[in-house]
Amino acid sequence: MTQMRSITLARRPKGAPVPEDFALKTSGLPEVGEGEILIEVSQFSLDPYMRGRMEDVKSYAPSVGLGEPMVGQGVGRVLISKADGFAEGDLVTGMTGWNSHAVLAGLEARKLDETLPPSTALGVLGMPGFTAWVGLKKYGYMKPGETLAVAAATGPVGAMVGQLAKSAGLRTVAIAGGAAKCKLATETFGFDAAINHRAYDDASGLRKAIAEAAPDGVDIYFENVGGKVLEGILPLMNTGGRIPLIGTIAWYGGAEVADDRLPMMWRSILVKRLQVTGMIVFDHWDSYPEFLAEVGPKVAAGEIDYLEDVAQGIEKAPEAFIAMLKGGNMGKQIVQV
Ligand code: NDP
Fold first, then answer.
1. Least packed by Cβ within 10 Å: which of 195, 242, 258, 332?
2. Ligand 1 pocket: which of 51, 138, 157 to mutate (most atoms <8 Å of CB)?
3. CA-closest residue to ligand 1 atom 48
4. Which residue positions in the chain have pLDDT lower than 50?
């Protein structure tokens, strides 16, 4: 008899997660109720936001309970359908969690276009790619000739940001961890320049490098990381610059901004009249069909590139997740169940 395998939250991490914070659990297949489908999950996504769900704190989404499967989006085929509009064998996506099988209400699942690899629904055409598109469209106010900078530049959010900005006529500066990622940023994702943030111990060295790559200053800083990169870039922002505030992964492990750095950071926002807007992608799902209609054909035609890093086996998910938070991924991190 087929068993379901899950990666559960064994305990809440202190700082950076470690393998002992997760457990592999085996159980029987879940029952399928009326209006529901059973999915055999082929791949699921690992995303930085999941680090936040491991905490027992109030946030924009509920935390994962101890002993419960980690949350996340997956793709797979329908094994049993008791929901209208779904048949056995349909390729679907939904919030399957870190599981080999999942029961979802039909309303919570979406059928996928079979002409594209299913994994694209998790990265370039999924939540991360959409985050880049909606963040730029609603809060970037891009103008040709301007300069945009983004860190985590070779991940699914950053790579999409760079390519959309480049095609809108902006100069694009990537900040990425390591020489291989910098090469990927310029050669595959078309950034005009790339800077390895790991080559600089502090924000001031990094700032000099970014200033050379952005001789006219920075008009849009698409904020994915916080930390040293944010501190380095703020004084380089042009007056009237925009900062879509998307993520602060440098601080997800609990590191904080030193008190003496805060006045400088706040003052840069004031003096440069910066527009800083926090954005959570879940508030924007009504624009997702527009994103798919605009960007889907470009991905299919190869006009937008993407890269995936696939961990083989559900048991590898914790290791791959821990590595991703530290920059161990080359492209969108996915788990092949
Ligand atoms: P990535 O696949 O790019 O993975 C995270 C990357 O963050 C790592 O590979 C690493 O890249 C970089 N990173 C980690 N620590 C640091 C650090 N201290 N300083 C600089 N960079 C660091 O992730 P995504 O593209 O999926 O997500 C990017 C950001 O967008 C995250 O902060 C995420 O939380 C956020 N996000 C927010 C959403 C929202 O709704 N607001 C939705 C989706 C994503 P490198 O090795 O290049 O440094």
1. 258
2. 157
3. 177
4. none
Q: Give the pLDDT confidence score for residue 292 in this predicted structure.
A: 96
Q: What is the pTM of this model?
A: 0.96
For residue 225, report the distance from its CA to the centre of ligand 1, in Å. 6
Kindly report the CA angle at 90 between 310 and 318, in degrees rounded to 5? 25
The Cα-based distances of 184 to 193, 210, 330 in angstroms read 11, 18, 9
Two tokens, residue 223? 């904020």
Question: How many other CB atoms are found less than 10 A from the CB of residue 181?
Answer: 24
User: Residues 118-165: pLDDT tens digits?
Assistant: 999 999 999 999 999 999 999 999 999 999 999 999 999 999 999 999
**What is the chain's percent helix, strand, coil content, to nearest 5?**
35, 25, 40
Condensed to tens digits (0 to 9), the pLDDT of residues 258-270 reads 778 888 888 999 9
Does the beta carbon of 246 lie inside 6 Å of ligand 1? yes
In the reported structure, the alpha carbon of residue 48 is separated from the centroid of ligand 1 by a whole-number distance in angstroms of: 6
76 vs 90: CA distance, rounded Å: 8
> Could you give the 3-state DSSP secondary structure of residue 295?
helix
Contact 329, 309 (CB under 8 A): yes
Query: How far is residue 76's CA from residue 324's CA, in Å, rounded to a whole number?
Result: 23
Give the Å distance between the CA of 179 and the centre of ligand 1.
17
